[in-house]
Amino acid sequence: MSGSGRAPASAIVTVGNELLYGETVDTNAAWLGRILAGWGLPVAKRYTVGDIAEDIRETVSLALKEVELVVVTGGLGPTRDDLTKGVVADLMGRSLVRNEDAWHALQAHFRAAGEDEVPELSRGQADVPEGARVLVNPRGTAPGIVLDAGEALLVLLPGVPDELEAIVEGGLLSAIDGRLGDRRRGHVVHHRVVHTTGIVETHLAERLEKRLEALPDDITDGIDLAYLPDVLGVDLRLSIRGGGPDEAERRFDVFVESITDLLGEWQYEASDGDLAEAVSAELRRSGRTVAVAESCTGGLVAKRLTDRAGASEILVGGVVAYADAVKIGEVGVKQADLQREGAVSETVARQLSERVAERLGADTGIGVTGVAGPGGGSLDKPVGTVWIATTVGGETEAVRHRFAGDRLAVREASAQAALAQLYRRLRDDGAKG
Amino acid sequence: MSGSGRAPASAIVTVGNELLYGETVDTNAAWLGRILAGWGLPVAKRYTVGDIAEDIRETVSLALKEVELVVVTGGLGPTRDDLTKGVVADLMGRSLVRNEDAWHALQAHFRAAGEDEVPELSRGQADVPEGARVLVNPRGTAPGIVLDAGEALLVLLPGVPDELEAIVEGGLLSAIDGRLGDRRRGHVVHHRVVHTTGIVETHLAERLEKRLEALPDDITDGIDLAYLPDVLGVDLRLSIRGGGPDEAERRFDVFVESITDLLGEWQYEASDGDLAEAVSAELRRSGRTVAVAESCTGGLVAKRLTDRAGASEILVGGVVAYADAVKIGEVGVKQADLQREGAVSETVARQLSERVAERLGADTGIGVTGVAGPGGGSLDKPVGTVWIATTVGGETEAVRHRFAGDRLAVREASAQAALAQLYRRLRDDGAKG
Questions:
Q1: Quick check: helix, strand or coil at residue B209?
Q2: What is the full DSSP assignment across A283-315?
C-alpha cells in the first residue's frame, strides 16, 4: 500500500509584502507543510511573492504546471492590496460571482459584531471565481476557495493563521478528496512522538541505534525515527507512511514497548510536550502538592507550573529567593551554612527544598540555586553550575548540574531539570508504594 | 536621492526538506528579508526547495534571471543530503577548489573543539567554486560564498541561523558592495522603533493620526509609520528610505519630539523592546530595589525581571502567593480582609504589594492578583479581571484591569501591566524629586 507510486505533490504560494520584508515570519507555510505531508500530499516547492498582480499570476501559473495541488495563502482581504482572488480568476478566465453560502456567512459575521449590514468595502468577500467550491471561514470574512484548474487543484486561503487553520481543519480535506483521495491515501503519514528530557541526543541515539539493529525487522520495518532536540530535551518522532491509523497505532505500541526500558527515567508523557503537564498529572494522581524555592531560575519553575489551568490544585506557592536575606528570612536557610558553603551549594539547595515545603505546608518541595551568568561564575562554580534539590516523602535528594549556553538557556534547562527530578521521584515513590 | 530609480532587487532561496515538511519554520528568510530591505536590496521573491539537486538547480537558475542578488541558504553541510555547493558549481561550470582562508578557519574550528585533525567528512567544507569569495564562518564549518554569476551576484550561506547571522553581520555587505553599493545606497531604509504599552492600537492611532495631519510637511514627509501590536503593547516603527544615517536620526528626533506628549505615560525606552529593561534601568538609576508578590501570574513578573543579567542589583525576591494560606502566612495579607473582599480585590492587591516590600526589605513592591482562567470567573469578577498594586515611596496605588484572551494572554498582559505601572510610578516619583 505504501509502495503504490509517488505521492501526489503539492506546492504552497504565500502572498504578502510583509513576508518578503520579514515583518512576518511565514508560520502558515510550515503549518501547511506539516498538514499536507500528513495527508500524503507532501510539499515539493514553496514560493513567496509580494502584493504584485504580475508576480502572483506568474508564480501560481508556474506552480500549477509542477504539482497536483497548489495552495495559495494571503491577499484575500477586502482592501486594495489584496489581489489574489482577482488575479486567479483572471488567470483562469472566470468571472467573480457572488456565492450564496459565503454571503450568508458574511452577513452572520457582521451581525455577530453588532452591525446590521455588511459594509460596502467587505461585500466583495462573498464573490468567488465561477465554478469554485467555497469553504466557510468561521473566524473571518474571507472564505477558502477550491478551484479545478485542469491538471491541478487550486486552493485559496486567507493569510491570517487562525482563519487559515480553521478552514483547513474544517473541511479542506473532504473538498479535495474527490480528486486526490485515492492517490494520497497510500502516502498518509502517521506520527507518534515520545518525549524525553535529561539525556543528550548523542547518548540517546547511541543507546537506541544499537537496540534497533538487534530488533526483528517486523518491529522496525517502515518506521522512521527522527531525533528532535531542543534546550528542554529530545523528542523522538516515529513515522509510518501509508496504511490505516489503527494499524499504525498498533505498530507504534509494539515499537515503543520494545525500546521503553532504554528510555527509562528520561521518558515522560504529555499531550502537548510540556513536562509541567506530566509533573502536574503525577502530583494530582498521588494527591500531593508542591512548593518551590528558586534562586537562579527566579520564578521560572513556578511560572511553568502555573502556565497550566488548575495549577492551584497542585501548587501551594513559592519563594523567589534571590537575595541571601530572602533565602534565610523567607525560606529558612541557615545563615551559617549559607556563609560556609556559599549560596550555590548542595546544602543550600537541600534547605531551600525542605524548608519551603515545610513552611508553605506542601507535600513536596523543589529548591534551585545556581549561576545563570553571564557574571557570578568562579573556578569551582563556573557559569552554568546549578544545584537542584527535591523533597518527596520526607526525603531530599540533590543533584549538581553543569548547563551550557547563555543565561536564558541555563535558566530554561534548570527549570526543566527541576521538574524532571520531581517527576522521576514522584514516579519512583509511586512505584514503591 | 531616494527617488533615484528602482532599488536593486534580491531573491532568497532556502533549501531543505525540513522547511517543506514544516519541521522547521523558515526564520532565516524573514531575518534576511529585514536585513536586505534595510540595505536597500528589497526581496522581490522567495523560494523554498527540498534537498533535490534538480530543484535547487532550476530554482537558482530562475532566480538569477529575475534579480540582481540571489541569496541561497542551507544545504552547505558535510553530509550526503547537502547539495547546494555542488549544484551551484555545476550550474556555473566551475570546479570546486580548496580555499586557503576557509581551510585555516576549518582547522582552527576543530582544534578549538579539541581535535587534532579536520575529520575526513568535513574537509570538503573548505572547497568552494573557483573564483568565489569566501566569508569565514566564526560559529561553524560552512563558510559563506559570494560568486559573480554574470547578470547577478550569488551568495551561499549555511542554514543554521546563528552561523548565517554571524556571516551576514560579519562581512556580507562589504563583499557585495563593490557591485551593488552605488545603486542600493539611495534605497537604504533607516528605522527607529518607539515602544508603547498599556494603550490599544486603535486608540493610539486615533491620537497620532490627528496629530500627524496637523504637523508641518517638513516633519512628516518621507517618514512611514507602522503600528506593530502584540499582547504586550504596540511598537511604532518609523522608516525613512534613502539618505544618510545622520540625517535620518535627526529627522526621527524631530518627529518623535513632536508626538512624544501624546505617547506620554505609555512610552518606554528599551534597546531590545523589553519593558523589564526599562524598569530595571529606572530602579538602578534611582538606587532602589523591588520585591514581588504574585498570585495569578505565578512567578512570571519575577521571571521577567530575572531574565536579565544583573537582576540581583534590583530584585530582592518574591513570593508566589498562589494558595490563600501563602498570601496570609508568607506575605502578611490579613485573613479577615481576604475573606471579606476575596483574593481578587483591591485590598488584597494593596496588601500583597506593601507587605512583600516590607517583609523582604525592598524599596518598592508589586502585588498581582486576578483570575487568569479558564475557570474561576464569576459575574462580578469574570476571567481576565486582575488587580495590580505597586508601592513606591511609601505610597501604594492599585488598578483594576480586565484583560482579554486565554490564560496565557491574561498572564502575559498582567505581568506587563505590573511592570508598566511600576515604571510609570518610578518616573513620576523621579520627576517629583
A1: helix
A2: HHHTT--EEEEESTTTTHHHHHHHTSTTGGGTE
- B45/A45 Cβ within 8 A: no
Separation of alpha carbons A254 and A216, rounded Å: 11
Q: What is the pLDDT of residue A227?
A: 86
Determine which of A10, A27, A46 to mutate to test the interface with B (most B C-beta atoms within 10 Å): A46
- Tell me: pLDDT of B293 over 80: yes
For residues B228 and B205, what is the distance between their CA atoms, to the nearest angstrom? Answer: 11
Residue type, A176: I
Q: How far apart are CA A352 and CA A358, in angstroms?
A: 10
Cell of B367: 502585588
- Give the ipTM of the model, two decimals please: 0.86
Q: Is the pLDDT of residue B1 over 50?
A: no
Return d(Cα A297, Cα A305) in angstroms, integer.
13
Cβ–Cβ below 8 Å for B305 and A298: yes
Which of A12, A202, A306 best tests the B interface by mutation, with the highest count of B CBs <10 A?
A306
Residue contact B25–A23, C-beta within 8 A: no
How many Å apart are CA A258 and CA A231, to the nearest integer?
A: 27
For chain B, percent helix, then strand, then coil, each to nearest 5?
Answer: 45, 25, 30
The values of phi and psi at residue B337, to 5°, are -65, -45
Contacts of A299 in chain B (CB under 8 A): 292, 294, 299-303, 306, 318, 320
> Rounded to a whole number, what is the distance in Å from the CA of A375 to chain B's nearest CA?
8
Distance CA A158, CA A160 (A): 6
Which residues, listed in sequence order, are joined to residue A373 by a DSSP beta bridge?
none
Cell of B423: 515604571
**Average pLDDT, whole number, for chain B?**
94
Mean model confidence pLDDT for chain A: 94
Cell numbers 500531593 correspond to A288
DSSP notation for A145-197: EEEEETTEEEEEE-SSHHHHHHHIIIIIHHHHHHHHHHHHGGG-EEEEEEEE-
Q: What kind and span of H or E run contains B69?
A: strand B69-73
B333 touches chain A (CB under 8 A): no
How many pairs of residues across A and B have Cβ atoms under 8 Å apart?
A: 232
pLDDT in tens, A346-376: 999 999 999 999 999 999 999 999 999 999 9
Q: Return the DSSP state at B6.
A: P
Question: What's the average model confidence in pLDDT over A313-334?
Answer: 97
Whether A61 has its CB under 8 Å from any CB of chain B: the answer is: no
A145/B303 Cα distance (integer angstroms): 45
Q: Under a CB-based contact definition with an 8 Å cutoff, are residues B403 and B416 in contact?
A: no
pLDDT at A2 over 50: no
Distance, CA of A364 to CA of B116 (rounded, Å): 49
User: Which pLDDT band, with edges at 50, 70 and 90, does A201 fall under?
Assistant: confident
User: A372 to chain B: nearest residue by CA?
Assistant: B309
Contact A100, A133 (CB under 8 A): no
Can you tell me whether residue B135 is helix, strand or coil?
strand
Residues from chain B that touch A302, judged by Cβ atoms under 8 A, are: 298-299, 320, 322
Alpha carbon of residue A138 to chain centroid: 23
